[in-house]
Amino acid sequence: MRIRELTGDDVGEVDRLRRVAFGRSDPGPPRPGRRCLVAELGGRVAGVLTIGEYHQFWGGATVPMGGVGGVAVDPHARGRGVAGALLDAALRDMRERGRALSVLYAAVPALYRSRGWERAGVFEYLDLPPDRLPAAGRPASRPAVAGDLPALHACYVDLASTVNGMLDRSAPAVEVGDVLDLDVVSVVPGHDGEVRGYLTATRRPDGLRVLDLVGRDAATQLGLLREVRSRSGPLDRVSLRVVDPAVTGLLTDQAIEFTVAASAWLLRVVDLPAAVAARGWPAAGGLTAAVDLEVVDGHAPWHAGRRRLVVEDGRVRVEPGGSGEVRLHARALGPWFSGMQDSHALRRAGLLDGDGRLLDRLVGAPGVPRLADFF
């Protein structure tokens, strides 16, 4: 089996594989910020995956992340290790290109778990009747224009940097200008070109789907929620993507029971020392400590073995050595890094042995990690 980068000659065959696998395709070469790997058997394309080059917020700092998607294998090649070989090659590729983490949405979780990815966050929509949205507040918004894009993006980044797991939506993998193609793009202007908040949404046959509702203060958020309510018209349901958990959790009138459409995403630590060095660690201030790890990772041998996690002068680093007192399997690294699971849960799942109190203290788990982008 040969794993290589996609070429122009492969586009038609890759399009066919994805139509068979997903009922849709993404014809043409990858967009900027995305790369494709293909698996070849007997001179024929047998599988494909795409890696998006993103940056993800953790502890207020961005960590380079490879978003894996579009994994498709020819039905005639299944059972021959094609998907596993593509994932192993993707891990090496991401490490070489400085992607310290990897995220994917798994249709077949067992495959990805066998390669070290594990559930570490959520992508959610809240589905509710329009009358559960506040009627108070004044939208004071206007349609967005191209000149608003830098300020709109800055408004998003100010929020995203406070929510673990969110993308910074930087170019080239994310083109901010694409937002203007949506059905609804409203901004709440501030002073000197600042955007106080914005709303993006699409009108679908089954109702209004709100993609982003972001405001710098409660008054702006309430005004945008009122705008959503007014745009709902005769619709009896509205879907709100959970971008800012304060908006959906604290400012809407949810009843005792409500509907959430949730997708789990899986995180994989590709390069532990690089990921730890890039991440923000707010709980590390004033702390001097160390814990000896033994990392069990047969698919990323570059960071496997005995390591010391050292906390000093507000910074955290991973270096070789130590006694291996705390044993961590590859699948434990993602949920620990994200704060989705603590050491007690990881121990009960058989993914950690030893005293993980320092690991728990460092992460602090400030809310559920979430993404507001699907790839």
Automatic annotation (TrEMBL):
Leader sequence residues: none
Domain N-acetyltransferase: from-to ranges: 1-136
InterPro entries on file: Acetyltransferase_Eis, Acyl_CoA_acyltransferase, Eis_dom, GNAT_dom, SCP2_sterol-bd_dom_sf
Keywords: Transferase
TM spans (from-to): none
One GO molecular-function entry: aminoglycoside N-acetyltransferase activity
CDD domains registered for this protein in UniProt: NAT_SF (cd04301)
Domain of life: Bacteria
A Gene Ontology biological process term: aminoglycoside antibiotic catabolic process
Record PANTHER family: N-ACETYLTRANSFERASE EIS
Name by which UniProt lists this protein: GNAT family N-acetyltransferase
